[in-house]
Amino acid sequence: MSTNYNISASTATTTTFSSLPENISLSLKNFALVLLLMVSLTGNTLILWAIYEDKRLRTNTNILIANMAVSDLIFPLVSVPTIVVALNFNRKWLIGGDFGVAICKLVHFLGEISFLISIYSCIFIALDRYYAVAHPFKGGFSRSRLKYIIPGIWIFSGLVTSPYLRISRLKKYNDSYSCELDWSQDGIPSGHLIHSISVTVLANGLTIPIIIILYSLIFIGFASKHF
């Protein structure tokens, strides 16, 4: 089963402007995507700059937020230009050869890993706040432990999304290329379904309940001390 990245990437923006004339619709899509890119770059860069400049802001929670900011920079930098090219060049992949294959693999891989890193950073932010409430004299994670947590988030997220490095490939149609996911390379007919379910469970099925439970415990602990 193959999925064309360019088609799927531009679908979300297509429905919003479908009733407009084509040239106006395309201009609005481009404007919206460029605006998204600029807002993301500005906001996340300011977060990183503030934490870097002011040592008082370098708390565990803020360092994890900075980790999220780095991952949140990946998606707009990688995916937004790809979507803009897809919209303006009839959904064609413009780069061929080994370099084109490498870029194709990275676009899929980095887009997914960015999402997972943000999700898992949220879990450890909740854990840090929980430990700060449950063990106020310790004040959350130790800084030495955080040095292992952040690389661990990136490594685990990379392992979960690593199949994209294997199954992303270029296909040539007449005189143009298409960057696609080819799950048939795994030799497992339901490989796409298995991977989708696994990522959904790891990204949402486990993380959201954990975050809800932790913040509920934080609220209960806070309430018990003040009421």
UniProtKB/TrEMBL annotation:
Membrane topology: Multi-pass membrane protein
GO cellular component: plasma membrane
Membrane spanning stretches: 31-52, 64-87, 107-127, 148-167, 201-223
Gene3D superfamilies per record: Rhodopsin 7-helix transmembrane proteins
CDD domains linked: 7tm_classA_rhodopsin-like
Taxonomic superkingdom: Eukaryota
Subcellular location: Membrane
Keyword list, A-Z: G-protein coupled receptor, Membrane, Receptor, Transducer, Transmembrane, Transmembrane helix
Domain G-protein coupled receptors family 1 profile: 43-227
InterPro entries xrefs: GPCR_Rhodpsn (IPR000276), GPCR_Rhodpsn_7TM (IPR017452)
Annotated PANTHER family: LEUCOKININ RECEPTOR (PTHR45695:SF9), LEUCOKININ RECEPTOR-RELATED (PTHR45695)
Protein name, per record: Substance-K receptor-like
Naturally occurring in which organism (per UniProt): Actinia tenebrosa
